[in-house]
Amino acid sequence: MDNWMFSVAGLFVGAMVGATGVGGGAVMTPLLILLMGVAPHTAVGTDLIYASLTKMVGVGVHNSERRVDWQVVRRLSLGSLPAAIATLILLHWAESGGIHNGVIIFALGVVLIITALTMVLKPILAKAGKYLRINDSTRFLKFQPALTVLAGAILGILVTLTSIGAGALGSVMLVFLYPLRLTPAKLVATDLTHAIPLALVAGVGHILMGNVNFVMLGWLLMGSVPGVMIGAHFGGKLPDKVLRVCIAVVLVSVGIKLLG
Fold first, then answer.
1. Cβ distance 26 to 164 under 8 Å?
2. N or C: which end of the chain has fewer CB within 10 A?
3. How many domains does the chain have?
4. CA 213 – CA 205 distance, rounded (Å)
């Protein structure tokens, strides 16, 4: 595989990440495994570092336009970062640094299926969250912070194991938890921002396990940096329906490739 192909992949995925907040793990990891022949454990570890660095560029654009809800980011991080560290410790304790390829592929498939199902149910979840927020606002707001921390913890575990979930699944969770507070543009920006520290913490753990290919990482970043800037520029201008379609297409495409 020529190295320039990694840059092409980085450009494509970077544009998706910037526009929708999805793509770092949901597309890149299966793409590296299925189309480029990268070992699964290396694909997961490298993608985590790639995703964190790529999303930093997108967050800079989103934050300059005041789209990031930092309180929501802090709540998610309160759950996700400890969960990611605990998962890494368990992996190290179990001497699972070299996770069997079949296990990773199976885990990727399961997470993508779960994410795809939640995406199908996203409109229903959004309506349910809005109904509860309006008709039972006192109770909803009371549990909202704790549920956000719990959502972050779930994401922390999934992302550390597979590099998938911070974007696609995270956006669905936020749609339910913050139906009135987060507009489509703020949803993308907030979800994207939270993914950075989570991917960094999980990525560092995989570096220590020897699961990161830095040469491949460099080529990926060469394509992703301009890609994510282009995506972030247009992402805030896309209506919610378009964003949902983009995310759904990403998940369906990746799911088909994994099942095939």
1. yes
2. C
3. 1
4. 14
Provide the CA 160 distance to its chain's centre, in angstroms. 11
Collapsed DSSP state (helix, strand, coil) of residue 50: helix
- Whole-model pTM: value is 0.81
Instruction: Summarize pLDDT for 92-115 with one digit per residue, the tens.
Output: 776 554 555 666 777 787 888 787
184 neighbors 21 (Cβ within 8 angstroms): no
Residue listed under structure tokens 């349910």: 128
- Please answer whether residues 228 and 54 qualify as being in contact, where contact means their C-beta atoms are separated by less than 8 angstroms: yes
* 41, pLDDT greater than 90: no
Question: Residue 23 and residue 186: Cα distance in Å, rounded?
Answer: 17
Q: Is the dihedral of CA 191, 199, 224, 62 positive or negative?
A: positive
Domain housing 158:
3-259
Angle between helices 137-162 and 184-208 (to 10 degrees): 40
pLDDT at residue 184, as a whole number? 80
How does residue 154 score in pLDDT terms, banded at 50, 70 and 90?
very high
Residues 256 and 33: beta-carbon distance below 8 Å = no
Q: Is 193 in contact with 73 (CB distance < 8 Å)?
A: yes
The residue length of the chain stands at 260
> How far apart, in whole angstroms, are the C-alpha atoms of residue 166 and residue 222?
22
List CB contacts of 241: < 8 A, sequence separation 6 or more: none
Q: Which tokens in the block code for residue 174?
A: 């936020």
